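Something for you to look into today, if you have time. What I am after is a single protein written out in full by you. I want to see for myself how the chain folds. Could you add the entry underneath, on a fresh line?
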Amino acid sequence: MSDSWKAEEGGTYFISFAVVDWIDLFTRKEYARFLLDNLIYCQRNKGLLLYSFVIMPSHVHLIAGAEKGVVTHILRDFKTFTSKELVRMIGEHPQESRKEWLLRAFHLHGQRNPMNLNNHPG
């Protein structure tokens, strides 16, 4: 998510975020389901107001807000947890034919991200 805009408390926003290099990650049912489960968790436990969403093969669109506070704080936590768990899932997936390529791509992008203090091993 870009740092160029600032959400305000009580606002409703159209938000998009993508997998690095627009990799088609969510074509795998288990990865898309995991993403959906995490959105549901954020609704139930973090106050995410989710009005509409679509999970595309390489990105996600949301129309969302927050019950209290700012939606970007919820999504920051959502994206941090989700990305780390997806990397773990990919590494442990016995039938993931793209495993080495995916982990290498994510690792390289993690190294280039100045905000990433805990790079994932590739």
User: Anything to note?
Assistant: The chain has a mean pLDDT of 88. The longest strand covers residues 48-55. The chain is about 45% helix and 20% strand. The two ends are 23 Å apart (CA to CA).
